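Write out this protein's structure.
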Amino acid sequence: MSKSNSPSEEKNNILFVIFLILGICTLYCIAKDHSAASAENSKIPNTSESISTSLWTGEKLTASKGTIQGPSGKETFYNMDMSFVIEIMHANDVEGKYNNYSYWIRDDGCKMFGNYIMIAADLRFRPKGTIVDTSLGKGIVVDTGGFIYMYTYYDEETGENIVVPSYVTDPKNSNERIYDPESYYPDETQTYPLSYQLDIATNWGPQR
């Protein structure tokens, strides 16, 4: 014959079940809140990553310097409305990689897309979405410009920046310009590589 529980034991069992249910509900709420916070934090730019330049010990681009030789080539800066560029990046983002990438301006004036500085580059070598080291942190290629058709170098004898076209004329049609692994100096005695220049988006100077 089975032994029945006393009223006090039954009361204790009921209280145990109630506390167990409350504990499970509390853990569930904590996990849910943590998950929501993590999702929200993923939308906030990780400024420490974008600012980090630990691998670059050379000079950094500033508004006063205008141009430098950075870790990935020559760097200049430009200031323009980047909203249309961002719209294109999102519109072409079929994989959803940039869903949480928002536009913001860093304290030093760099225009950011998510964690990365927005930069313009020669898309033949650095397609849109390419991550590139710059003197100011990690950059993402979102744009291009006419600067890719020219290569600039410093002439130590004259102390001037010499601009050289980064194309050659099509021998079959003198009005057509074609690209070549080398760009030719006007007297064709020396050759210079195509531009690997980066144009960094900032709010420095007047907007164009």
